[in-house]
Amino acid sequence: MIKLKGSIKISGDKSISHRALIFASLSTGKVKISNLLESDDVMRTLNILQELGIKIIKKNEKWIVYGNGTGGYIQPTQVLDCGNSGTSARLMMGAVASNPISCTFIGDDSLSKRSMSRLSIFLEKMGAEIKLTKKDFLPLHIKGDINLIPLEHVMQKASAQVKSAIILSALNLRGKTRIIEKRNTRDHTERLMSYLKIKFKKKILSKSSTSIELNGPYEIKPRDMIVASDPSSAAFFIVGALIIPESRITLKNIALNKSRIAFIDVLKKMGGKIRVKKNKTVSGENVGDINVTHSSLKSITIKASLSPYLIDEYPILSIAASQAKGVTVMRGLSELRHKESDRIRSIITNLSKIGYKVFSKKDDISIKGSNKIKLINQKKIKTYGDHRIAMSFVILSLIFKNKLIIDDESCISISYPDFKKHLKKLSTN
After folding, report:
1. 40-53 pLDDT, tens digit each
2. How far is it, in rounded angstroms, from Cα 268 to Cα 274?
3. Fewer Cβ neighbours under 10 Å: the N or C end of the chain?
4. Do the beta carbons of residue 394 and residue 383 sit within 8 Å?
5. The pairing of beta strand 379-381 with beta strand 248-255
6. Which one of 312, 342, 364, 386 is the catalytic residue?
7. Domain range holding 243?
8. Closest by alpha carbon to 115, among 93, 91, 135?
9. What is the model's pTM?
């Protein structure tokens, strides 16, 4: 059996890469971005910004963005194609909403089935004109307005993308915008704003609730940015090393944002031998090295309150659960139905096909782990075009000596083009 050994530097973080490009475009001058993730999703945001009049070039492995200020987007001459990227669609909707331009956003078949009304209701209350397909989906048309009304927004549903989109719309507004999160979400946007010296007030309202207050309009001074390496991408190799005997790996310069590494605490509770060492801070994010050694995992129950912090990691956590002793229960996964695929269905269908006992009740998943399953014939894994499902089952296939055939590995380039290259570097017989 292949084992994972050695050390690598993971590609740049996807969430931070999108935000670095957008904030650079809203600054008042030249910004260099290092370690930008050059995935399909991030390139969609980059291309959309170019369509909106932002000059972006690559020079010596760095991306250089010439910002036009918070009200500086110009009328695009064609539709803005988000491909598979929900982050591109939602964040750019927010960014253009307070510019006096009209834009049409489109996406691929998968993205065109994902809800946009959960964001559009906030932007419409402020005064943006938005026309959605079937009142919820792409293609959508948005007519921005420099005179949007700054309001208080109460977010009942947890979504870092919706929160970030409202923040981006507020940067060009005159007056106070207040966002209340009933359930806290990832805070990359706030960290980047602190690094860029954009003044805002953040208040802790309760253990799980926060308010953010902005008082615009803002002039964002240009400042070079470094994108930390992606913890969600690291998660695939971390689980791989935990479940494959004799594995031991080190992953370098990983973003250690608390809202992004909750999966490490989950894996440690399952018995995973993982050591995290913080090294430094880059562009507002703590980064460090993660050491992982093969471990005997045990089942646990993952509470629903953790779901906003594990949304991208549930697929690979389900692979860890498949190798853990006992029944692992993941609660409150409703948001998984609105990702690149219905991930609840994707996880259950594929694990069941291999022979694992997997159950779903409403928005919970139960997985009975087993290391006794042997495959005589190859099994075809259906990714549903979902990059995280594809990578998760590539990792599981290592245990089955590559008897799992992934129907579409091309979708991996959406978030991690170097995944197979990095896997090959860590793999030894």
Report:
1. 999 999 999 999 99
2. 7
3. C
4. no
5. unpaired
6. 312
7. 229-428
8. 135
9. 0.91
